[in-house]
Amino acid sequence: MAESRPSVSTSSETEITLGVLSAIQESSEVTQRSVARELGIALGLANAYLKRCVKKGLIKVAQVPSNRYAYYLTPVGFSEKSKLTAEYLSQSFHFFRQARSQCEALFARCAERGWRRVVLAGASDLGEIATLCAREHNIEVIGFLEAGSNRENFAGLPVLPDPASLKDADVVIVTDLGDPQGVFEALRARMPAGRVLHPKLLRIVDDDPPEAPAAMSTER
Fold first, then answer.
1. Which among 33, 54, 94, 127 is most buried, taking Cβ atoms within 10 Å?
2. Are residues 55 and 111 in the same domain?
């Protein structure tokens, strides 16, 4: 029977596998629970990745006193960790360049239309990159919208748990990486047509009508 693979993206697989190998390199006394906790993933997913790494010969398992198991990186595991580290850094730099370019374009569009007050929907790496871009276009980011969130701040800006805060925004930009399509759908029911923007990298399906010409836009 074929191995059941966790339903995660290729980039996530790289990150999780790298996290597992790094955790084991730092301490052979890791457990499935400690790996799951450190990487912020489900226990079952941590178990699946540990088993996969053993099967691939990246790590070996030895029984130690107190009926525990110790995990060790094999020479193949050390080599794989180096390769995955390079891949992860390459992906991270590519994401940063792509995100910055697309956020720059969105803020330039906002500036052209006189939309100066922006809310970012989603406290994420993408959102943090967006805050850096906003400074170059005389755009004020009011904060990050995360409905029901207990966080108070992210990237030096307030986290807004109540969608009612959108009344102070000229436009909302989706920066959520967990469910961008769902966030977009919820937001455009609250905002005027064309006032919910999103970077192309989120692959959001958007059937909103074209925006009004810039000459018809009014600054709040």
1. 127
2. no
**Length, in residues, of the chain:** 220
Q: Write out the residue range of the structural domain in which residue 145 sits.
A: 96-216
Within this chain, do residues 118 and 32 fall inside the same structural domain, yes or no? Answer: no
- Taking CB atoms within 8 Å and a gap of at least 24, the contacts of 67-71 are 68/29, 68/31, 70/28, 70/29, 71/24, 71/28, 71/30
How many angstroms separate the CA atoms of 30 and 36, rounded? 10
Same domain, 52 and 134: no
Q: Which two tokens stand for residue 29?
A: 């006394």
Q: Token pair of 147, please?
A: 């409905």
User: Rounded CA gap, 167 and 181, in Å?
Assistant: 21
Listed in sequence order, the residues at least 6 apart from 210 whose beta carbon sits closer than 8 Å to its beta carbon are 194
Q: What beta strand segments (E) does 19-85 contain? A: 59-64, 68-73
Helices 125-134 and 75-112: crossing angle in degrees, nearest 10, is 40
Nearest alpha-carbon partner for 70 in 80, 60, 79: 60
Could you give the CA distance from residue 137 to residue 156 in angstroms, rounded to a whole number? Answer: 18
In this structure, which amino acid lies at residue 209?
Answer: P
Q: What is the pLDDT of residues 140-180, one digit of tens each?
A: 999 999 988 888 999 999 999 988 889 999 999 999 998 99
